[in-house]
Amino acid sequence: MLIAAVVVVLLAAGGVLLAATGEPSSPMQAVSSRPRVVETPRPVADQKIDYRDPDAVCRAFAETVHTVDTTTDAGPTDAYRRAIAYLDETLTGAVADVSTHRPSPRWQRWTQHQVRTQVRLHPYAGDALGPDGDQETHRAVLVSASPVGRDGWRDTETHHTVYCTLRLVADGWRLSGYSIE
User: Are the C-beta atoms of residues 95 and 176 closer than 8 Å to each other?
Assistant: First the structure.
């Protein structure tokens, strides 16, 4: 199943959000609004994750995209590239095709303090998610991310809900879509 279009929108922390829409979901600069299917080799699976468990795959994705280290990451898009192990082929191609954009003022401030985010996951207890089927399921997880500098500096903790749509593929569940609110 191909996603109609993938839009990459800058988040407040300078990260990216892929949304399965044809138009930017934010007035912020769209990095890419054209769907492209990219031949991308399947990355090595995360050996710590049981891909037969869609909850585990959604949690791993949510944690990975919120984990950044400004001493090793060139920009926030690096977290999304690390999360490719949890994506189906369509989203893998979209993420692999995203170029690193100019760092936001927030990212630049984080770099000055050598920030690493401390990420905590919490169970989702919100509204009902979409219906589950044999080949597709929906999950959500709450994320708290605390940017902490190696010099002791702290930025405001952020809280997000990550909604995952997962598709069953040959080797287990993979994200076929997601949103971060």
Answer: no
